[in-house]
């Protein structure tokens, strides 16, 4: 079997394992199960680290051209397949500098170390299948050789410049190329070119966890030198280009985008609940106002009825009073008439008495005259 076919099968093997694992665990809610975030970080780091074990095999067989094609292919695959993970300690360190939790930083960093070791075990397992004779030679080697062939200071500068140049090229492409597919293609090509420019000097990993998985404890560099070149230099480069600002740390990896989506969904749920509460309150207030309006209307109706009854009573009373007044007037008129008639009778009686007196006087006078 040709070596490039074996390499292609190796990449397919790694990506298939990662996709199956990601499919199984992405079903769970990460906001409720924090362990799912750790598992997805473990899977994503394996996807980043494992294909890099094949680079030295390709460079020995196909040279720089083969490495360029390989890096471009790997970068394109990771652009589409890598998600829900950092796969790089630098963003985690940036979050720590932005006053994030030490506990969460330690958990994720330990997860990445474990994933790097697992990547090496997966590569060893693939080589043990002996699809190509070169795999037997790799398995027979007891010790590995470090990729650092320059001084520590020079190596730090090269690794830092690799990170900085990759960042600035990405910003330029994002500014002038709006199409996502072409942006990914040109970014992958630029990453391949940067890699082959420094691969014979430091390995040009530009990712501390990949360098640790592939070269840590290899002959040719001390642990302190490895830490300076492959850890301090990339972290410093990320700081220089501004990746450790809080806004950049939110956008630097797909895992942050997932967390932001979860936060947005939570906010949307909270907003929906808040809106429903407001609607319920408004409905209850409307019901209360309707009840108040109905009670007020009922009260007004009762008052109107009372007023109507009162006015009716007043009218009745007025009528009764008028009747009474009319009766009193009649009584008064009758009494006046009675009084007038009685007065007339008295006058008549007085006149009769006077006449009788006059007649009696006349009779007396006549008697005296006769006498």
Automatic annotation (TrEMBL):
This is Aquaporin. It is a multi-pass membrane protein. InterPro entries: AQP11/12_channel, Aquaporin-like. SUPFAM superfamilies: Aquaporin-like. GO terms for molecular function: channel activity. Keywords: Membrane, Transmembrane, Transmembrane helix. GO terms for cellular component: cytoplasm; membrane. Residues 331-340 have a biased composition (Basic and acidic residues). It is found in: Membrane. Residues 341-360 have a biased composition (Acidic residues). The chain crosses the membrane at residues 34-55, 102-127, 148-169, 181-199. The keyword Nucleotide-binding does not apply. Residues 331-371 are annotated as: Disordered.
């Amino acid at each position: 079997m040709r070596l490039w076919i074996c390499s292609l099968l190796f990449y397919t093997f790694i990506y298939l394992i990662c996709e199956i694992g990601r499919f199984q665990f992405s079903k769970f809610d990460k906001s409720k199960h924090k362990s799912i975030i750790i598992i997805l970080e473990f899977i994503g780091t394996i996807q980043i680290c494992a294909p890099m074990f094949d680079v030295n095999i390709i460079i020995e067989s196909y040279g720089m051209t083969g490495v360029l094609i390989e890096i471009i292919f790997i970068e394109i695959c990771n652009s589409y397949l890598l998600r829900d993970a950092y796969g790089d300690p630098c963003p985690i360190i940036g979050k720590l500098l932005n006053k994030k939790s030490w506990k969460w930083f330690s958990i994720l960093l330990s997860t990445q170390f474990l994933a790097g070791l697992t990547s090496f075990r997966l590569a060893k397992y693939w080589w043990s299948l002996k699809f190509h004779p070169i795999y037997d030679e790799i398995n027979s080697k007891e010790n590995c050789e470090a990729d650092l062939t320059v001084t520590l200071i020079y190596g730090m500068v090269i690794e830092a410049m690799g990170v900085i140049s990759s960042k600035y090229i990405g910003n330029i492409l994002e500014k002038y190329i709006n199409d996502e597919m072409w942006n990914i293609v040109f970014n992958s090509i630029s990453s391949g070119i940067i890699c082959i420019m420094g691969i014979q000097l430091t390995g040009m990993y530009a990712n501390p966890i990949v360098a640790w998985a592939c070269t840590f404890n290899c002959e040719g560099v001390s642990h302190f030198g490895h830490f300076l070149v492959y850890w301090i230099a990339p972290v410093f480069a990320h700081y220089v280009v501004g990746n450790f600002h809080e806004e950049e740390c939110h956008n630097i990896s797909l895992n942050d985008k997932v967390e932001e989506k979860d936060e947005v969904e939570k906010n949307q749920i909270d907003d929906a609940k808040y809106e429903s509460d407001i609607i319920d309150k408004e409905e209850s207030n409307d019901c209360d106002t309707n009840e108040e309006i109905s009670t007020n209307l009922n009260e007004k109706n009762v008052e109107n009825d009372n007023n109507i009854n009162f006015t009716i009573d007043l009218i009745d009373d007025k009528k009764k009073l008028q009747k009474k007044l009319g009766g009193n007037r009649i009584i008064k008129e009758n009494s006046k008439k009675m009084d007038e008639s009685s007065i007339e009778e008295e006058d008549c009686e007085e006149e009769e008495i006077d006449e009788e007196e006059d007649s009696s006087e006349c009779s007396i006078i006549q008697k005296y005259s006769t006498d």
